[in-house]
Amino acid sequence: MTPMSAPPPSTSSATPDDEETASGLRKVIHIDMDAFFASVEQRDNPALRGRPVAVGGSSARGVVAAASYEARVFGVRSAMPSVRAARLCPELIFCPPRFEVYKAVSQQIRAIFLHFTPHVEPLSLDEAYLDVTDDLRGIGSATRIAELIRARIKADTGLTASAGVSYNKFLAKLASDQNKPDGLCVIRPGEGAAFVAALPVSRFHGVGPRGAEKMAALGIATGADLVQRDLAFLRVHFGSQADYLYRAARGIDLRRVRANRPRKSVGGERTFERDIGSGPALREMLERIITLVWERIERSGAKGRTVTLKLKDTDFRTITRARSFPAAVPDEAAFAAAARALLGGVLPLQQPVRLMGLTLSALEGEGGAPLAPAAAEPGQASLPF
Ligand SMILES: [Mg+2]
After folding, report:
1. Whether the Cβ atoms of residue 290 and residue 359 lie closer than 8 Å to each other
2. How many CB atoms neighbour CB 8 within 10 A?
């Protein structure tokens, strides 16, 4: 046997990375910053405090990336076209996004998480799951840890976070949403099924607006409705999501908190209300998708080298065209230019299309490896807990 130059790192503590949990019982915290981008803008500009604020461009094809709670009162929501948001709330103040600032705050809060556990799974710049079953500080109480984290975030960043504490990821995420903003909610073992029964299915993570519509058509409005349906029924209607939904309806979730989850791509697609065949109409649609997807790319912090255009025609045939660059796509202009060139290459089309999407892949940097290893060392002087 060839001598190894370095032994593999030992895995003495439980590593909740690979398989599902055997019992499904862990101590999981979901932390979610409140109206994150908008709160950062209000923190840094006192004139914006108490006012309805939307982060995003106000132009015709702008999209709201985040809305302050004052703006939400008017129905303004993230991912909404800015034009519609301005109509709902004429007083709305638009702020251009400052992703570098948001990323810096995101690293601050991540350092706080890593003080308590190495098992941190970021979902985006402002959201993460933490497995604190065996916390680094020997605190033992997930609720106590969640309170400490919220207090520390407030002290270090001046911003509020909401926390959900439970025995799996699905419930922890539901819980963090329960008492927003600046809230804490704990769902203890034995309480999950009853908590889920009372909820509309639209609140379940992974059930988007489309999924909720589909469920409504099947007579499923709440967790209590979902729990009545057996696994065979769910498999027919929801395919690969069936097992997750079946368990979720019972407050069960076997997914582990996965630190350093490798992300393969960031993208988005749109299904059109009407099939589109003309070049100008497709180019116009592409511009909207560029804005939408680039916003997601910025939000995730991902950097990638490959841009892929996907089209699905009226016969459900998929056309993909990709272009790879030697280095990460640096900005929206470069991303947009690549997307336009890819579309230009397939025009004119023989058949109208019903769907268009863009993705950025071959990722590197923050999107793929979001943890700063140096900050993971316990007992750092910068974090005197
Ligand atoms: Mg948030």
Report:
1. no
2. 6
Same fold, 28-34+101-256 and 36-99: no
Distance 322 CA to ligand 1 centre (A): 32
* pLDDT value at residue 3: 41
| Contact of 31 with 142, CB cutoff 8 Å | no
The architecture CATH gives domain 36-99: 3-Layer(aba) Sandwich (3.40)
* pLDDT of 295: 87
Question: Kind and range of the H or E element at 273?
Answer: strand 265-276
CB 65 within 8 A of CB 37: yes
Question: How many Å apart are CA 38 and CA 156, to the nearest integer?
Answer: 18
- pLDDT computed for residue 22 by the predictor: 59
pLDDT value, residue 272: 86
pLDDT of residue 240: 86
Q: What is the pLDDT of residue 273?
A: 81
Domain boundaries 265-367, corresponding CATH code: 3.30.1490.100
Distance 150 CA to ligand 1 centre (A): 13
Residue 127 is a catalytic residue: yes
Q: How far is the CA of 330 from the centre of ligand 1 (A)?
A: 26
Determine contact, residues 181/162, Cβ cutoff 8 Å. yes
pLDDT of residue 137: 92
Q: How many CB atoms lie within 10 A of CB 379?
A: 10
Ligand 1 centroid to Cα of residue 69, in Å, is 12
**Of 308, 292, 293, which is closest to residue 362 (Cα–Cα)?**
308
Which of the following is catalytic: 41, 127, 298, 366? 127
- Residue 20 pLDDT: 59
CATH no. for 28-34+101-256: 3.30.70.270
Low-confidence stretches of the chain (pLDDT < 70) are: 1-24, 261-262, 365-385
The residue written with tokens 């690549």 in the block is 338
* pLDDT recorded at residue 274: 87
Ligand 1 ion: nearby residues, β-carbon < 5 Å: 32-33, 36, 126
Contact, 205 vs 184, CB < 8 A? no
Q: Domain extents for the chain?
A: 28-34+101-256, 36-99, 265-367
